[in-house]
Design brief:
alpha+beta; 434 Repressor (Amino-terminal Domain); Jelly Rolls; 2 domains; six-stranded antiparallel sheet; 28% strand
Length: 205
């Protein structure tokens, strides 16, 4: 084997070592995220506890069959386990023109949908503006839903099933929104708030 062959072998060995090290970090991170001990992961995967320990410490190169068993036990894909780098940073921007706007029936309340479309089934959030006298009446959301209204400027009133509460700048109201609810600006000044709706929050009695 020439010099070139030796260098190539060293490169391959370094690459295998790096892959094994990343694999160990991934297995350990996922195991701890599920609060699993080495013994518990061993029982669920069928891989010996000593082998898992060696993988996490980067002391062995596991077979594909071993990696597959661990991936199945941790409920992640083989691709995820074999990633050779940390996840890329996530940074996404939405311009003002891309932000959907909802208006109340009286035209005095405006909801900018600032929440992420991928969470809409369980988490929604909005930038809320209400002119004086503005009323936003909403139908019930699904059972167990909770809404949080944090007032930034002005004053807002919330009514839920006959109960009424007022919030001023710096106050937050949390209320079940799985029944009809109304937000009103009863003051003489505009109001501004953030609104977060948590769907399936709890089975509230």
């Amino acid at each position: 084997m020439g010099v070139e062959g030796k260098d190539r072998a060293k490169t391959m060995e370094a690459g295998a070592h790096a892959l094994s090290g990343q694999l160990g970090k991934t297995i350990q991170r996922m195991r701890k995220s599920y609060s699993l001990s080495l013994s518990e992961l061993s029982e669920q995967s069928g891989v010996a506890k000593s082998i898992i320990s060696q993988i996490e410490r980067n002391e062995t190169n596991p077979t594909l069959a071993t990696i597959w068993r661990l991936a199945q036990a941790l409920d992640i894909s083989m691709e995820r386990v074999l990633q050779t780098a940390e996840d890329e940073p996530f940074l996404e921007k939405s311009s003002r023109g891309d932000t959907p706007i909802l208006m109340s029936d009286d035209g005095k309340c405006r909801l900018a949908i600032t929440g992420w479309i991928k969470t809409v089934e369980w988490l929604q959030w909005y930038d809320f503006h209400a002119e004086p006298g503005g009323v936003l009446a909403s139908d019930p959301h699904q059972r167990g839903s909770v809404e949080c209204l944090s007032v930034l400027d002005g004053e807002l009133e919330v009514e839920v099933a006959g109960a009424i509460e007022t919030a001023r700048a710096g106050d937050t109201l949390r209320y079940r929104c799985d029944r009809p609810h109304v937000i009103r600006n009863v003051s003489a000044a505009p109001a501004h708030a953030t609104m977060v709706c948590i769907l399936k929050a709890a089975a509230m009695e």
